[in-house]
Each structure stands twice: as C-alpha cells, then as structure tokens.
Amino acid sequence: MRDYIIATDSCCDFDENLIRELDLTVIPLSVHLGQDHFRNYPGEMPESHVFYTRLSKGEPAQTSAPNVEAFKDAFRPFLEAGKDVLYLGFSSALSATYQNAAMAVEELREAFPDAVIRAVDTLCASMGQGLLVDLAVQEKRKGKSLEEVVSFVQETIPHLCHWFTVGDLSQLRRGGRLSAGKAIVGNLLNIKPVLHVDHEGRLVPMESAKGRKKSVEALVRHMEETAIAPETQRIYISHGDCLGDAEVLAAAIQSKLGVASVTIGDVGPVIGAHSGLGTLALFFLGKER
Known about the structure:
Layout: E1 4-9, H1 16-21, E2 25-27, E3 30-33, E4 36-39, H2 48-56, E5 61-64, H3 68-80, E6 84-89, H4 97-111, E7 117-121, H5 126-141, H6 146-156, E8 160-165, H7 170-174, H8 180-188, E9 191-197, E10 203-210, H9 212-226, E11 234-239, H10 243-257, E12 261-266, H11 269-275, E13 280-285
Parallel strand pairs: 1-2, 1-6, 6-7, 11-12
Antiparallel strand pairs: 3-4, 3-5, 8-9, 8-13, 9-10, 11-13
C-alpha cells in the first residue's frame, strides 16, 4: 500500500497545534477585511478578538476560495514524492473551495496516472469539518488504506452534527442569510436563532430561542437527543470571540453526557465573516444530522 497524506482547507478552523498533532496539509482560503487582505491560516490572520472587533464595528469582510492552481501547487510535491493524496473539503453548498479542488485533482490525475488522488466533499464547516478530518486521521493511523478512509468518511458524513447559534443577527443580515426586517426585530427582542448544517451542507435555521442562555441550552438538548455513545466521543466547540460561553457549553456537555473530551477553538475569519461575533457551535456524531 502506497503512503498517502490527508489534506483539508482552513475552514476546518484548526489552530497550529491541531494541524501539527494530526499531521495535516491545510490549504488556506483568503479574507478581505476593510482594506486588509490575509490568508486564513495560523500566524497570518489577525488575532481573533481583533478580527471580531473590527467586524462588529461594520468593516466589510469578503472571503475567497483557493483557486485550482493553489490546490495543484499544494498536492504536487507529495505526488512527486510517490505519495497519494486524500483531500477533505469545505461544504460545496457554502463555497467554491471543493469544486476548485476537484478540478485540480482531475488535472493532476493526468500528470500522475499511477497515483490515487481523491477529493471528498465533507458537507461540513468549521470544526465540524475539523472533527471529520480528525476521525479520518485516526482511521489512517489504524493502518486503513486511502480508499478505506474514504469509505469511512462517506459513511460518517450523515452523522456529523453541527448545531450553532449567533451573538446577534447583524452579520447574517449582511451576508444575505436573513432579511433586514427580521434582523432588526430579532435583535430588539433578543431572539437567538439556532441553526444547523443539513444533509446537503447548507446552513438552515431550525428554531429561535429567547436570549443567550436558552440558545446554549438548545445546543445541549440537541446533542442529548441525537448523540451516539457520547462517552466515547471527542467533541469540538468553536466560538466567535466568546470563550466564556464556549466553556459554559463544554461544562454542560460534560455534566449531562460525560463525553471523552472537549476541544474548544476559534471560529476562523472565513466562517466568522458570515456568522459574526458571538457565534457558538457544537459538533458531534449523532444518529442523524
């Protein structure tokens, strides 16, 4: 069996330590914030608090996917070294990132006909994508082949649960995911939407909660209702500059479900540009999304 690498993109929202721990190749997306441009990659982007402060003050933010050449440049050195490549990408329903990677893979197959090069649309986002990548790496470390890991990933995707809420509705309005009228009324009434990522990889509002406490409780409730063997799971929580809320959520999950471990991280600038300050997200394996 040929050796292979697992690659993903920076929408997994992994920090430098996790990237190193899992031995990942990560292809960065890009962000324009006000007059600044940077890659969404550890060490190259603003500190989380700075980013969300600027965003909440109304600085415009735009995100862009890596182009086909960026993926080819990232994968080619491994192929030249005789390794195969498995890329697990950000949901195609939210970005052109996966499509660009898939095109790069097709072009590279012509240049490296003996190599196995696979691109998989995870239909995931943020640390939900990260959780899936983490699980794939653990399968590889068990000695599974690239194709066996692909099968595992495809079987796991329908069970990768993403539940999240936001601090206010302004950024959802700016991104066109909520009307101006609903955003204004919702903010005035302190309404917090609870959303998830559906089976097609789209962000879908599921319910509304009155206030932050109730919205956090809703995340816990959804995990209680659907989690598979939570005591065996390493779950992920990501947040948009609201670490205290993330810690409250983690404590509640530990108290009610006794999960094996909780990893907390930042919602990176690409996801955060659309979800905004105060985003709080929970990722775990469940009976269904």
